[in-house]
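S1.2 Input.
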Amino acid sequence: MLNHQLILTDSEGRLRCTLDEPTEFNGGTPTKDGLLCVIDIEGVYFVNGLGYGPEGRVTYEQLVNPEPGFAGPTGRVRASTGGVPMFWLYGLPMDANGQLCITLGDIPPPDTRAFSSAFSAAFD
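S1.3 Output.
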């Protein structure tokens, strides 16, 4: 369960991911520079039904015509790279089919929240 901003998100609320190997683990979540580390293979290790690759990356699958549901029979997370989050499950953004909303390699827009803009403007 994610209860804080452990993983960066894009402007739509999808988790930003990388195919790189993790450099840190927080509560079992593999990350590198704030990006969730994923790999598109069948799981080698399993924790609570979730598949992990040999380097500790979360295993995922992206299907063209996905069936509803979070994980397939191989323990791979069903991921939607174009989906828009409709609800959050344990802090994870899910699309209408119950699949994890992720994005690979997208750069987030600048933070325009009031505190961040005011703080940044002080240094111009």
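S1.4 Remarks. The chain has one domain: 15-121.
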